[in-house]
Design brief:
About 45% of the residues lie in helices and about 15% in strands. The chain is globular. By secondary structure, the chain is α+β, with helices and mostly antiparallel strands. It starts with about 35 loop residues before the first helix and ends in a 6-residue tail after the last strand.
């Protein structure tokens, strides 16, 4: 099987979304399209005199690290409409997750895993693109909200580092048999619906509330949301309403569209509100700590069922695998030169692929055939989705190496039974890898020497 046709991560693009915490992967996953101010950039307030609250194997965790991470976590929960646990419980959870993360990063570095600046650049561009802004504006918001660009990029680098450990060391744990696929499909046919196989494209309007809003501010915001819902139900264009009124990041550029995602990657508040809605239908006004929300279902489909029509992409690529003779930076530079030569008419994509690509598609000029959503890893598919037919990407780094991708054409087509099975296999593979990663993380935490110092002061 060609590497790029392996699973798209069922939990979603680890880096593309933001830097919020989750229990399973110690800070590796987050909610799609989350407002930057609600996820990674908010400042918890004036910095106190810093001090060490814990030491992990010899590496300190400071009070200000806990404060920044706590605020980030609270904002993520608020944006998802989830209730906040008591503050002392949150502080303990955040500290324990920072301890676990430090221990994992130490293991990753000790085993020689590295992340070059070009890969961090790629991740930074992805965060900006998914929030509907450019990298300069992203960096301006980072600085304006009290977080240095260097710190933001270090967070991205650490996430990539941990993801690479997962991909490199745990792949053997992700094997899925035909019997497991058959069993899963039988369960789906018997009505055991899996949110990971339900894909929805939602549009969203947010009427934001400030921190600690007054009763008057809440009433004013709710009145505005109620009025917008009435206008949408009366037939006004939802995208226009979002562009002109939504406080969600990127709404002016993307008309409030979140994008097609599996249901398990949507905020629980949105999922609960749209579970029984059909395409074109609107939710009521939803309340979360972030404000008032209105959600519209643009598209909904069940990937585990037959007869599903999807947009397929026909692409080709050149894959270079970094090794002792060629660093990742050299691979990216080589592919960048290939792109320059192709665009200048000095070389042919298929010929370069046959001569250089280091995977099974090389013999066919890098041709990957027609692929349905979910057939590529997230980093690859996100870039492919942004291309126009005939366009060539910049070098893209994934778990398999560095790629140069060209989109040839797109079409609407019905998924074949074989493609349906591959979607299921990919989903089960990623779940197994997530379970293996969680077990590895527990083992790393258990081996770490942790010294607790003075408790955090927030």
């Amino acid at each position: 099987m060609n590497p790029p046709t392996l699973a798209r991560a069922a939990a979603g693009a680890v880096l593309a979304m933001s830097l919020a915490l989750t229990a399973a992967a110690q800070g590796l996953r987050a909610t799609p399209q989350m407002s930057l101010r609600q996820s990674v950039l908010s400042d918890p307030g004036p910095q106190q005199a810093d001090y060490i609250v814990a030491v992990v194997n010899s590496e300190p965790i400071t009070n200000n690290e806990v404060r920044r991470r706590l605020y980030r976590y609270e904002q993520q929960l608020a944006a998802q409409g989830q209730p906040l646990p008591p503050r002392p419980q949150l502080v303990r959870e955040v500290l324990e997750r920072l301890i676990a993360e430090k221990a994992q990063l130490q293991v990753a570095r000790d085993t020689g895993v590295k992340v070059e600046d070009a890969v961090v650049d790629q991740a930074e561009e992805q965060v900006a693109r998914q929030n509907g802004i450019g990298v300069p504006e992203l960096r301006a918001r980072v600085a304006a909200d009290g977080m240095s660009v260097a710190q933001f990029r270090d967070d991205l680098r650490n996430q990539i580092l941990l993801q690479r450990v997962r991909d490199r060391d745990l792949q053997s744990k992700g094997k899925v048999s035909d019997l497991e696929v058959d069993q899963y499909l039988r369960e789906q046919q018997q009505g055991a619906s899996d949110p990971a196989l339900t894909e929805m494209n939602l549009a969203h309007i947010l009427v934001a509330l400030p921190d600690n809003p007054t009763a008057a501010q809440v009433a004013q915001a709710q009145a505005k949301a109620d009025q917008l819902l009435q206008r949408a139900r009366a037939g006004e264009d939802f995208g226009k309403l979002a562009r002109e009124n939504s406080d969600a990041a990127g709404a002016a550029q993307n008309s409030g569209v979140i994008g097609l995602r599996s249901a398990d990657r949507l905020p629980p508040l949105f999922l609960d509100a749209t579970r029984n809605l059909g395409e074109g239908q609107l939710s009521g006004v939803l309340r979360s700590p972030a404000g008032f929300h209105i959600v519209k279902v643009l598209e909904k489909r069940e990937l585990g069922k037959t007869g599903i029509s999807v947009t397929q992409s026909h692409a080709r690529h050149i894959l270079l695998r970094p090794n002792a003779q060629m660093t990742e930076a050299q691979a990216r530079q080589k592919l960048a030169d290939f792109k320059r030569r192709i665009l200048a008419g000095q070389a042919d994509f298929a010929t370069l692929a046959r001569e250089n690509s280091q995977d099974g598609s090389a013999a066919g000029g890098g041709d990957l055939g027609w692929a349905s959503p979910g057939m590529f890893v997230p980093e690859f598919e996100d870039v492919l989705d942004a291309l126009q037919p005939g366009q060539i990407s910049d070098p893209v780094t994934t778990r398999f190496g560095v790629h140069l991708i060209q989109l040839l054409e797109r079409r609407r087509a019905t998924m074949s039974p074989r493609e349906q099975r591959e979607v299921v296999r990919n989903l089960l593979r990623e779940r197994k890898l997530d379970e293996a990663y969680a077990q590895w993380a527990r083992e790393v935490r258990g081996r770490a020497y942790v010294e607790y110092r003075d408790p955090p002061q927030l």
